[in-house]
Design goal:
Radius of gyration: 18 Å
Shape: elongated
Oligomer: single chain
Low-confidence stretches: none
Strand content: under 5%
Mean pLDDT: 92
Distance between the termini: 61 Å
Helix content: over 70%
């Protein structure tokens, strides 16, 4: 297994290694949102979804979507596209709610 991984990485161009790193960055951001949500919920002793969760979701999803487009992976693109729309919409709704509170 280790040899297969090593040989695969050695066969990749520098550009492909950068893209892989970019993809892992997106996955890392996307995963970290759950840690943020967990910490906030534990601090408040109730389930909560902080605003940062939605921003991390959007950023991670856009990065992973860019990686999927680069890899020409239609399944991955479809899944990330739908998620990205949901995350952007939630951020829009949060901003609209904040405007109503400020002006209200």
């Amino acid at each position: 297994m280790f040899d297969l991984l090593k040989n695969t990485l050695l066969a990749m161009s520098f550009e492909e290694l950068l893209w892989m790193g970019f993809g892992f960055l997106g996955q890392g951001i996307f995963f970290s949102r759950w840690l943020v949500q967990w910490v906030v919920s534990e601090r408040n002793e109730e389930s909560q979804i902080p605003v940062s969760f939605w921003y991390m979701s959007m950023v991670g999803s856009v990065i992973v979507l860019a990686y999927a487009i680069h890899r020409a992976d239609l399944v991955f693109m479809a899944g990330q596209s739908v998620g990205t729309v949901v995350y952007v919409r939630n951020i829009m709704l949060l901003h609209q709610a904040n405007k109503r509170v400020v002006s209200g």
